[in-house]
Write a structure and sequence with these properties.
single chain, alpha+beta, three-stranded antiparallel beta sheet, 4 helices, globular
């Protein structure tokens, strides 16, 4: 028996071309593939925030934690992974639905 397939409407608008180019340019390949696969399912603001954090991490090694609060990007920077991990746990405890972006710029620190 053949089932009818009805495509679902994406939750978000597609990523703008500039964001797609930035994802491919600044985000590591495996993560870029994940982000692009989620095009239409992920809030473009979150993807843009992740690109910004990767760019910043390339300039200044640190652990970056970003999230949207009232539609504004919030970024917190930590000199070590433990502090950043504790902050992520606090944020999730406060708001379980909060989408948090974590970029570990310490992993590539010379």
């Amino acid at each position: 028996m053949k089932k009818n397939f009805t495509p679902q409407e994406p939750r978000f608008s597609s990523f703008p071309d500039e964001l797609v180019v930035n994802i491919m340019s600044y985000v590591p390949l495996n993560r870029a593939q994940q982000l692009l696969y989620q095009n239409g399912e992920m809030d473009p603001q979150i993807a843009e925030l992740e690109v910004d954090l990767h760019q910043e991490a390339a300039k200044t090694p640190a652990l970056y934690v970003g999230y949207l609060k009232d539609n504004k990007a919030c970024v917190e920077t930590f000199p070590d992974s433990d502090e950043g991990g504790k902050r992520v746990a606090e944020l999730k405890e406060t708001d379980n639905d909060l989408e948090i972006v974590v970029v570990d710029g310490l992993a590539t620190k010379p």
